[in-house]
Amino acid sequence: MQKGKISIVIGGMFGSEGKGRHVEVMTRHQTHGKINVAVRTGAPNAGHTVYDNHGTKYAMQTIPCSFIDPDVELVLGAGAQILPELLYKEINMIAPLLNRRMILIDKNAILQSKSFMKREQDLGMHARMGSTAEGCGEALKARISRDGSVLTMADIVAYWNGKVDPTDKVANESLARDIYEIDQYLTPLHQAGLIQIIDTQAYLNQMYNSGAHILLEGTQGAGLSLYHCPDYPCATSRDTNAANWLAEAGLAPNLNIEIHMVLRAYPIRVAGKSGFMPNELTWDKFLEETTEMRTLMPDLLARFRTALITAEEQADRGEIIKNDVVMKALASLSEEDNALIMPYIEKTTVTKKVRRIGNFDTFYEKYTQINNPDFMVLQFADYIDRQAAADLIAKYGEGLIPMTTMEALNVFGAKFAEILYIINNDW
């Protein structure tokens, strides 16, 4: 019997490497074979951006980005944390593309109710370490405690079937706490046949054994790993490397696996006190490195730099956060200047805060050692030269561009040569 294949897409930096875009390319263009099943686990604190065939943009925090192909089965594995309102929103958002598909959710996935979000916000997690404060860590903490204070999808099925154990006081208290979110969001999805609660571990292994190509969509980035981050506690609440995504999905590590590690020409971290960032750049220094801004819009760059200086002078020195300074600087510019500069300045998918940015660095070699990727995908090459990237897309179309190393060096110049040197000599 022909066995299947598992493609794992992971981030090799601090998140926002463009994993959603790579999944989109793999799904639409079948660059590594036709995808049959797409799986996502983890928590809803990471957003992956994807575009459908009509160019409509979606930011997905729960459902795998391969939903853009109507033939791909969609799975939320055992390690998933389900935020009911968000799942309801995402399913209704992509409903026209589901093509009568159901989202298959593992019975051991947990319900991440808003009560966990409130706990993290009360703890000031965003101010302390740049956390999204979506409640993901608190929900996982409750899961680890094993005291019944977090509900699994199996508990919700029992509720739907009228089989809740009346003697289980803690579980009933949890059900009473979360009953509104269940009835408001999950019950309508269940009644409409849009979700199905199953043993996804058994399903995925059955599909693999029948020859299916499974795409496992990792979230966040290897540098945010709870175990392998550079400066704990500035980390997320779980491991974010390939082995963990396999474990959360219930797939063995010795199957036919290929690992895709996605990197960025300019790595980022979320705003605030989010931890170590090698070779960090201020946004004006980054803009100075971009070909267009440096050569075509030097006056705009000068105005932005002046606005940054003014915003820093006006900020409270004891509580200065770079995101706030950048936002104040942008607010002081004209609408015309903002329209020109905003395509170069990134905000996070979930929190909408201006990101921190840095130069490519040998530091990230650590995560290639942990994951031993079969493919390293460099995203955001357009930051090196936006016009050169646009010309390539016009010539070749979207997808993986067939370029030799020398062609890439000729197009993108010294910055690309620097990145390539790091990858080849240190990795």
Account of the protein in words:
It is a single chain. The chain is an alpha/beta fold and 427 residues long. The protein is 44% helix and 14% strand. The chain contains 17 helices and 15 strands. It has helices at 19-29, 84-98, 114-122, 125-129, 136-145, 153-160, 169-191, 200-209, 242-249, 283-289, 291-296, 298-314, 322-332, 335-341, 365-371, 386-396, 405-426; strands spanning 5-11, 37-40, 48-51, 57-60, 73-76, 81-82, 103-106, 110-111, 195-198, 213-217, 257-264, 268-269, 280-281, 356-358, 375-379. The strands form 4 sheets. An 8-stranded parallel beta sheet has the order 9-7-5-2-10-1-11-15, sandwiched between helices. It has a 3-stranded antiparallel beta sheet with strand order 12-14-13. The model has no long low-confidence stretch (mean pLDDT 86).
Question: How do the strands and helices of this protein lay out in sequence?
Answer:
Elements lengths: L4 E7 L7 H11 L7 E4 L7 E4 L5 E4 L12 E4 L4 E2 L1 H15 L4 E4 L3 E2 L2 H9 L2 H5 L6 H10 L7 H8 L8 H23 L3 E4 L1 H10 L3 E5 L24 H8 L7 E8 L3 E2 L10 E2 L1 H7 L1 H6 L1 H17 L7 H11 L2 H7 L14 E3 L6 H7 L3 E5 L6 H11 L8 H22 L1
Parallel strand pairs: 1-10, 1-11, 2-5, 2-10, 5-7, 6-8, 7-9, 11-15
Antiparallel strand pairs: 3-4, 12-14, 13-14
Helix pairs in contact: 2-7, 3-5, 6-7, 12-13
